[in-house]
Amino acid sequence: MSNLETRPAEQVCEAGSAAGGIELLDARDVPLGGPRAMTVRRTIPQRRRSLIGAWCFCDHYGPDDVSSSAGMQVPPHPHIGLQTVSWLFAGEILHRDSVGSLQTVRPGELNLMTAGRGISHSEESPEGASEHPRPPTLHGVQLWTVLPGESKDGEPAFEHHADLPVAVHAGARVQVFMGTLRVAGETLVSPARTWTPLVGAQLDLEAGASVELDVDPGFEHGLLVDAGEARLEEAIVPVSTLAYAGPGRRRLVVSAGEAPVRAVLIGGTPFAEDVVMWWNFVGRSHEEIVEARADWAAQVTDADDGGTGYAAGSADRRFGRVDGYASGPLRAPALPDVRLRPRRRPGE
């Protein structure tokens, strides 16, 4: 998914300090694109905490009725330095990218795109057909992870995983889509490629149920609640809130109250590198972001290549070209007027 904010702020992201208790992070509503935009609830990055492990972006959307609308329509746009992690609770999204991928993702399946030095992609609600009508509801999360410095300029790639490990125990169902997690003595390992130690999982709890997760004490974790009222350790976590638990724990207990709970768990080792995020780019410096924007702008035009919005020869440039989407690519927003100074971590 693209960040379609017209004036995205440049942010220098940094790992949080280890928290003794549970910290609750409220979401902010962000409209994506125009007056009829789909609104997402964004919990990271934010001023209080910009990273959880390598996870640097968390948008939570839906349930949205797409039965009588175009649904999700995100034109081709670029990325650098990150992985996009697409995870659905309901509906379908069709992904196209500049490395030639064409893949529909459905609930319980993972679309994972590694941007490396540069990739572009589009996402849309499929049109559907009489034998396979489009699902009427769209609901899920869009997550990004930061690639570490030694991998951020690598080759772009795409993976789709439809068979992901699941554990069911005492009214709880846990499906791991990234990394490794131990549940009730069973170790669940996702086949998806990761570049730093991390975990991503969906938790579904029946009313009154709880699940004990054995976790790496070096990880920090976040629990995003999609439905029901969850409890993480001693803290009650409302819907659309992200609960943060700092490193040092060997187990996490998630419980449901009187209603079933659905939540997403993310976590990883605190990311040691300073990260600059702007629009759809993740880099290490202001100059790196400026260069990426200029490279994308050189590929996007209204004048050449038959009016498609792509400059001639775009397929061979840094971000490649997405074919098959109904309209041209997104133009990059204007850069901020000022250069940000990197923030310092607590104690530095």
UniProtKB/TrEMBL annotation:
What the entry lists under SUPFAM superfamilies is as follows:
RmlC-like cupins
Signal sequence interval, chain numbering: none
Region Disordered, annotated ranges: 118-137, 325-348
Domain Pirin C-terminal intervals? 202-298
Tell me the protein family, please.
Answer: Belongs to the pirin family.
List, for all copies, the residue spans of the domain called Pirin N-terminal: 39-144
One Pfam family cited in the UniProt record for this chain: Pirin
Query: What organism is recorded for this protein?
Result: Isoptericola halotolerans
Name by which UniProt lists this protein: Quercetin 2,3-dioxygenase
Q: Which ranges are annotated Basic and acidic residues under compositional bias?
A: 120-134
